[in-house]
Structure formats: C-alpha cells, structure tokens
Amino acid sequence: MKWLITGATGKLGTRIVQHLSEQVGNEHVAVSVRDVEKAASLTAQGIDVRHGDFDQPETLGQAFQGIDRLLIISTDGEESTRIRQHQAAVTAAKEAGVKLIGYTSIANAAHSTNGLARTHRVTEEAIQATGIPYVFFRNNWYLENELGTIETVAQGADWLTAAGEGKVGWALQDEYALAIATGLTLEHPKAIYELSGPLHTQAELATAVGTVLDRPVALDEVDGATYGERMQAAGLPDFLIPMLTGIQADIAAGTLAVESTDFEALLGRPVTTLEEGVRLLLKR
C-alpha cells in the first residue's frame, strides 16, 4: 500500500510524515510538495517526493497517481482560495483513482458556527460526493496556537482573554500528527475522528502556565473590542486583529467544546496534560 501526504513540508505535515514513516516504512510513503527542493531531506530518507501545487491542478493529478491512501492537509489563506484549492485536490484524487481520502478538518465541522468551519464543511462535502471512502480528522486546537500568549505571560504579563468560560480541547500538534498517522494506517478507520483533548477554559490554561512558571498568573478578562485594541497596541498587524478577536469569540461561543474519546483511542494513551504540554513548549 502507498500513502501520500500533501503539504508535507509544513509544521503538521512534517510531523505526520515522520510518524507515518515510522509505522509503515519510508518506501511506502510519498509526499506532494510545491517546492521539491525543500523536501530534499525526505528524498534522502527514501521517501517518494512528488511535485504537487494546489494552484496547478494538473500537477496534483500526476502526484496522486498510484496512491492508495491520500491525506489532504488543509491549506492556508482566505476562505475562497482554500475551498478552490481543496476542490482541485479532491477532483485530482478521484481522477487518479485514490482508494481513500483523508482530510484535516476542524472540530464538529458539519455543524460548527466557528469562523473557520465553512471551508472545512464544504471540503468534507466535496470529498463525500466523490463516493470514495474517506476519513476526516477533525482537529480541535493546537496548544501551540497559544504559544504567543504563553511566552508573553512568561515574561511577566497577565493572561489576556476575551473567551469567557468557553472551553477548548487543546493538545500538542505532534499528538495530532501521531493520531492522524495512526488513523491512516488502520485497516478499517472510522469515517470521522473528533480529535479533541480534555476540555479546559482559558482560566485553567492560565493556571497550568502558572504552575510551570511557579508563580500565580492573573486572568485579564476583557470584551472582544478591548482584546482587539490590546492586540493592536502590542504591535500585531491590523489584518490579524479580526481573526484573533474572532477566535476568542468562537471559543466563548463554545464552538471548540467538543467531547470525544477518539483522540485517546488513536494515541493508545491519554492526551498530554495542559501543564506538561506547557512545560514542553517552554522547555522547562
């Protein structure tokens, strides 16, 4: 059997390829990347590196030839661009005769009101419409997404949040990668995996950070407008502000409060605790 991972030089893709190679052997793994030269280290390991550019659909058709199981890692960018790119990959997969399509989605994609959900919902529907067996890995939230705040707090600041009592199923990106790689190797994977860790509030995450830092961390709770102003005052680019305030609002609305045992089942162990995850990120 031959597996192929798209976006294999990105942060998540790199980790998935590593774990998949460990499980099935380098000779059974292929990757499609926009810049083949950036994947030279994978070529050196004996991994089949192919040119595949989401903005050049013809390259995807060639890259997916002879592939049994494909993982489409969702791209970055504005919604319309991502949907177009994902559709190109899905079409290419069907034309190439791929036997199973995996996709990295978001928590509760089919019903979520999260601002990022529509891209994933449309892509999931496009994959389902092919009639090809599929497996959706609905990722909750990387703990690494909070690293900027964690580092700011480590330098003495309070924990700034506009997320209220909203809960999140945080986990380390490497754990998502391991769970996804494992799911792709199962003989009969589930169609949908909700990869959510234990649910925690921002206050609980702040407490975990305080434990690692060995000092109390105060919670600075503000409304969305104030949060945006604080981010702007901190020097973040204006184009990022709506996204950041939107994420806080989505968390407050409970869009990431998805409970599931799928993550633990794929890992074969509990998800790393918040405290240990923060300790790993801060290297303490």
Automatic annotation (TrEMBL):
<dbReference type="Pfam" id="PF13460">
    <property type="entry name" value="NAD_binding_10"/>
</dbReference>
<dbReference type="InterPro" id="IPR052718">
    <property type="entry name" value="NmrA-type_oxidoreductase"/>
</dbReference>
<protein>
    <submittedName>
        <fullName>SDR family oxidoreductase</fullName>
    </submittedName>
</protein>
<dbReference type="InterPro" id="IPR036291">
    <property type="entry name" value="NAD(P)-bd_dom_sf"/>
</dbReference>
<dbReference type="InterPro" id="IPR016040">
    <property type="entry name" value="NAD(P)-bd_dom"/>
</dbReference>
<feature type="domain" description="NAD(P)-binding">
    <location>
        <begin position="7"/>
        <end position="157"/>
    </location>
</feature>
